[in-house]
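U., I forgot to send this yesterday:
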Amino acid sequence: MSRLEPYIMPKKMDGWVLFEDELDITETEEFIRKMRMGELPNLSMYEVVYATMVRALVEVPELNRFVKHSKVYSRNTIKGSMTVMKGMTRESDRTIIMPVFECEDTLYDVVRRIKEETDAIDTTVKVEDDENKNALDGLETLFCKLPGFLLSFVVGFFKFLDRYGWMPKKMTDMLPFHSSFFLTNMGSIGLDAVYHHIYEFGTLTIFGAIGRKRVCYELQPDGTTKRAVKLKMQFVVDERAADGLAYAVGFRKIRYYITHPEMLLTPPEKIEFDKIDREKKKKK
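Result:
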């Protein structure tokens, strides 16, 4: 079935699966407060979730697959994507950063890699006026100067290359559509999590969103009430890339590491390799 699915469902939209979860992050909030007083003064819940995603892909490598031209491939990098706003008004520009991670990365490493990317962003100017804009912003700025008919041709040409896996690596490196996962923080703008589409263009397999935190009071067995902080997450994934069990194991790990963030302070005990890679080695 895994071999046949990409042929039965040739498009991503055919294989979309929606996943939703709400976590008790009361202890995670306490962990973040302690870390802010010491080694990670600006640590955010978003960064904890981001580090959790990286760790989940290391321990469940099936989540780091993609489908192209009805064939399933295993990525050889862990590349995340996130949107960074240059302001908080409707006129504000936005940019996208795409940090690349190593299998041994800890929470410290993930925060550092994200900070290196965000520190390079000049929030005082528009994207087109930013002398240090990244390659994606430069490409978007260039494309937007093209007349409509020419832009349509150029985008169509890149879609053609992408469909058959002929896109140059230099291009895929600068595009968020070719990431292991994309994570957006809807809570930062006061909204709850949403189901965000995974683009038909590119190889993106997982798009996740976290919402605003919710405080509630839960009734305990002894009749007392307990204050709890909840976080809602929603994901859209491409079912064709991995089976339901792999996604179930992966999302259980995401849930575990978000609620046990101290486990992210050390490298993973074991790095798993995708069975696709193992099968290729056997054939050789």
